[in-house]
# Entry
Amino acid sequence: MKTAFSRRLLITSAAATAFAAYAIPAHAAMQPTGPTRAGGAGASGGPKQPAKPPKQPAKPGPKNGGAINPSPTPVALAQRSGNVAALTFDDGPNPVTTPLLLDYLHEHNIKAVFCVVGSEITKPGGAEILRRIVAEGHVLANHTTSYADMGAWSAKAVRKDLMENLRIIRQALGDPHAPVPYFRAPNGSWGVTPQVAVELGMQPLAVVNVINDWVTQDIPTLTANLRAAMKPGEVVLAHDSGGDRSGTLAAVKAVVDERLADGWTFTLPQATPDSPRLASAVLDYYPLKHSAAFPMGVAIDQRETTGAAADTLLHNFGQITPENHMKPEEWYDADRRFRINPQAVALMDFARDNGLRVYGHVLVWHSQVPAWFFEHADGTPLTDSAADQAELTARMRTHIFNVAKALHDGWGAFGAGNPLVAFDVVNEVIDDSPNFADGMRRSRWYEVLGENLVDLAFAFAQEAFNVKYAAKGPGAPENPVALFINDYNTEYADKRGRYAALIERLRERGAPITGVGHQFHVNMTIDVTWLEAALATFKGSGLHQAVTEFDMPTGTPVTDALREQQAAFIRTAFETFRAHADEMFAVTVWGLNDARSWRNDRGEPLLFADDYSPKLAFEAAVGHEIR
# Structure
């Protein structure tokens, strides 16, 4: 049940007594101390400055499309959720199809995105149709000057083409500042185009939910395709140009008529300038972050730093984890040069400006790591020879130190206002099977370095984050960045045993590990008491513990009964987390709302619905009685 909650939530009396104030003195040493940049509070438990209002779209100009805080991640969702869809049309304007499509949309008061091509605008009648598109309230996307595949183009070549198409569009409209807030890559071949589009103030628009109308114009086929492609809360793509589109037009009319009759509405994609704020973002309920004596975190990317998403985040969470953009491969460009990902910059700035903690993820992992890390210069694989071990060790050290330096140079010394408070140093190094005596995953890291890969990673992280780039002088905290090992399925006794054994060996060898992470990507087939067993294994060890990646799908098809079962599980889970508050560094939910979850196809796995309204699962997490 995706309740919109006009009421204020109250926690149970027990929770209210225990967690009336969001103060975490037991964890003071974990948090940044000293003044922060831009007036933000260093520790999530300390006083915060009022959150800045969401950024407004920059005024469009010759080199700016006017998108709201654009992100390189292509937008695939519509405004609002449920039985809504966002219609987008590519390759026009077309003198035959586009006017007929506009007639139909006008008749039903539907607005859409038209992804326009410069070569079509400059054809006879193209500019006139473009002016009609804008006059009738539709939104434009830059679809390049000629529909060339840009997947292998340089940033300079892409920028030149997109700027030229902006000029063509605005010249046709007679307005040098006309907004063109979206960009869509021809053929969905992105290359470096998303980054360039963002530089030019345009939000990349995803190529999803297509109807294959470039293959056929058979009306029954396209009608069936469009029925399947038009998914609740998502963007759907069709074509109004690029050849005969009579079949597409007929399919659009048929399916949209059907959906309107079924109560659907049609809106625009997310990030449209001047789009109405979501009514469900009214924040009149009890915040999750006030329900525990430790920070509540959420995994995000730049999309959650503006609008209703940012409002919901700041109301409920005191810590963020970059979902993808601090993983190893994200620090390198196509030429293997180290640089900080623009999304990581945006998240660090957002945290600094709003008094949030940042939990970094991840330094060493077997996945999403550049293949060349494990290769010689000639492309042959590294082996476990002494020379190759030295080469991979040097690469690991250089990577970790470069990450620390980049975050230090941009946001100050760790422990003196820098929002970074922790990092997953190594991730998922335990094998899922009991096949190996040491319990270790046979990753490429392991094949070259053996178990020593873990010791090395922690040693380098300690030296970089807590020595070289840490705050110095009187009052500077010792070890301001907590160093975690992180893994999944720790709720299962066999894997947890292998995990605990490795951690014990690391501590015996003097590795500077300070925290144990539990991912808890759980489902309702497990016993909730298994979470307690996982945390109890490390209780009294002197290590911090963290729930680093919590989510829990209902299973499908979703029913109210499953939602109630999910809520009951989550309520007990969060009670368990609170019972371990004295050692709990943070609890992080892996995503802000269902639409952004990697497990959404398994059934509503998070605490907030697609429109950011708190769900029954949220009530359970804060400790509210389930009715």
